[in-house]
Amino acid sequence: MAKTHLTDEEKTQIIDALNQDTEPPPELMSKLFPHVAEKYDVAALDRAKIATLEYAGKRSEAAILNQTSSVENGSPLQVERCFEKGSPSGQTQLDLVAYMQKEKTDWMNLIVQGDNLQFLKTCYQNEDPLIKDKVKGKVKLVYIDPPFATKSDFVAKEGEDSYSDKIDRAEFIEGLRERFVYIRELLHPEASLYLHLDYRMNHYVRVLLDEILGRANFMSEIIWKRTSAHSDAKNYGNVHDIILFYTKSQSYIFNAQYTDYSIDHKMKRYRHKDSDGRLFTDGDLVATGLKGGGYKYNWKGMTKEWRCPLETMERYEKENRLYYTKAGLPRIKRYLDEVKGNPVADTWVNIFPVNSQAAERVNYPTQKPEALLERIISASSNPGDLVMDVFAGSGTTAAVAEKLGRRWIACDFGKHAIYTMQKRMLRIGESKALGKDVSANQKYEKSPQPFCIVSCGAYDFSRIMNLRENKDAYINFVLGLFKLPRDAKNLNGKYKLANIYGEKDGEPVEVYPVWEDEYLKNIRIDEDYLQQIIIQSGGRLKGAYYIITPETCTIIGDTTLKNSSGDDVHFKLLKFPYKILEEVSRNFQIIEQPNAQENVNSLINATGFYFNDEVEIKVKKIKDGLKITRFKTGILDKTGNKYTGLDGLAMLLVDVDYDDHIFDIEKTIFAKDISDNQEVRISGLTNSVAVIAVDKHGNESAPFIFKD
After folding, report:
1. Residue 609 binned pLDDT confidence (cut-offs 50, 70, 90)
2. How far is CA 524 from each of CA 115, 281, 478, 528, 554, rounded to the nearest angstrom?
3. Lowest mean pLDDT among 7-16, 49-58, 103-112
4. For residue 311, is pLDDT > 90?
5. Domains and CATH numbers, the chain
6. Is 494 exposed, middle or buried (0-12, 13-18, 19+ CB in 10 A)?
7. Beta pairing, strands 458-459 & 610-611
């Protein structure tokens, strides 16, 4: 039978309801009866009846948000590196905390490497110190451009859906839906969601979003014409994508956007020109037929009912705002440079400045133009607002948000994407400035706001151990690693044990005190250590007792001992690093990094956490490129065997002119494109080159640097 986890306040609510012969609050349904809530989403059924999409494997929103399995919750964030004004400023959580205290700020923009579902869950849990109370309910705008379809594109070879295609379709849609549910929980009441799709997914996903965000919060289906021509002899050429615009509520941010008038419109409407060259059209000042009438007076020999009072007419005259017809009738001048233009409609064509896409190109597949994101971010957020993209790819959303003065979070699973975004942000000053009035070669010329690269789900053991310099930081991180809350029940006081900091299913969790050198270097968890815990508790301890510890600090496994009253005490060790958590090994997945460009944007569903393995790479320069002379990784394939040769390699990242300061990705060589003799063709190599190898599990080597 499933265990319930109710707070004291929730228990009181249930008792009061029973005493008063009333129903308990509906939000407790999923906790009291989780299996029923799994089948029937009561909250969803209470909402307005709208069409829903049904498929195998669809779960209730209550089930998604109340996941309790340790592998399905979020993962803590580990700082990899931070940058201030384009230069490195730290490598750990402690560096980041010190910087934020010094600068008296509580925010750093984030590039997150990891499964976006894990990251969204971490944000939803709102416990990680790096983002606690900074993201959940605070995101003003989400733009996402997910992969458009499964590998089969939903169609079998004969034109009919095969069984596997139907499974792909259901899993893919449920994967997106799960993310939408968490995204909704992160949105501010004034927030908007823009979802970028193509023709294959629009009809499915719109039904999902109607269900999750509410049909009343659907605002627009935007048609973006992304190309001018597409040849297809058997069909109409597909030249557009679709962007669905939803809001969290009916009270949302929207700053109307405008486009320039066409040349034809300007020539027809703005035919007059002042002596200074300003173009204008003229507007009526006579109030005849105007509802409510006007102001009757004589103006230069003409007595009429005018649209403005005499004082305003005099001001217009003084400001040279009046245009007189041949008959001497005054009309108001409306200058072309004072009008905003045409309000943007839901069909977007020709929104790119001349040559802008070529200037922005960062050699990343599916990269979107900055002008597209500029319009979206400008319309649905204000300076200082938080913008999020969890399918970040090349980082266009982050780059545009930066230029428009917004805060941002960008998440992607691929190391290729992470290094591409890092480079794009560090070089943002060299990129094109935004705005329709800027020249084609005008640069942004500003350093980026401070930002950090953080990982979610893949960790460096040494970095965790470095946190022991700050006891609270270490405790928070390792409790988060095992998805355990802080002790809120005073269990340490109950059992008189100093190192109880968390709880698991109501039972105490000790964090082994590695912040004390004696424990780290000389003391090990053995049977005597466990007996001392029982003795110190004065016989109070019974049942389960968990200890979170590095593997190197224990020489014993799970053990059951008796307390002084003869009751069993079950000591359970939560050891790290694990390649696979023992208790969830059957469900654990490490999704492979792409080894070819066409796989870059696959939908990722990695579960659990793992620790980075050491990767080694050595190369030498040859004519027209590089040759790999050594590659080594400790990862195992799906059958449990070590990879041989280059089989475990996903990609090489190359900085062709390394400056001994920051690794700046210039080329990405996927394993698929490496020859059988381990040679790589690369142009533009200088006399200082750095290479990073990324294996299929996302582990990366230190930069291998060689100089001529």
Report:
1. low
2. 35, 86, 18, 10, 5
3. 49-58
4. yes
5. 8-65 (no CATH), 82-256+345-455 (3.40.50.150), 263-338 (no CATH), 461-577 (no CATH), 610-707 (2.60.40)
6. middle
7. parallel
Cβ-Cβ contacts under 8 Å for 116 (sequence gap 6 or more): 179, 390, 391, 411, 412, 413, 604
- What is the spatial distance between Cα 588 and Cα 608, in angstroms, rounded to a whole number? 6
Q: Which of 70-84, 200-214, 218-232, 453-467 has the lowest average pLDDT? A: 70-84
Among 31, 87, 40, smallest CA distance to 448 is for: 87
φ and ψ at residue 543, rounded to 5 degrees = 80, -150
- The total of other beta-carbon atoms located within 10 Å of residue 379's CB is 17
Cα(91)–Cα(111) distance, rounded to whole angstroms? 14
Quick one: which of 258, 265, 162, 152 has its CA closest to 200? 152
Q: Strand (E) positions, 145-277?
A: 187-197, 218-225, 240-247, 258-259, 272-273
Residue with tokens 């300061």: 661
Arithmetic mean of pLDDT, 356-384: 79
How many C-beta neighbours within 10 Å does residue 664 have? 17
Half-sphere exposure of 288 (CA within 13 A, CB side): 4
Q: Which helix (H) or strand (E) holds 533?
A: helix 527-536
What is the structure's pLDDT at 148? 65
User: Does pTM top 0.85 for this prediction?
Assistant: no
Q: Are 368 and 415 in contact (CB under 8 A)?
A: no
* DSSP conformation class of 368: P
Buried b / exposed e across 215-245, counting CB within 10 Å, b at 16+? eebebeebbbebeeeeeeeeeeeeebbbbbb
- Tens digits of per-residue pLDDT, 658-694? 988 889 899 989 998 898 899 989 988 999 999 999 9
Distance, CA of 479 to CA of 510 (rounded, Å): 10
Q: How far apart are CA 377 and CA 368, in angstroms?
A: 14
Q: How far apart are CA 36 and CA 196, in angstroms?
A: 35
Residue keyed to tokens 């965000």: 213
Whole-angstrom CA distances from 407 to 134, 189, 387, 471, 505 are 11, 17, 6, 30, 37
Q: In whole angstroms, give the CA distance from residue 338 to residue 258.
A: 13
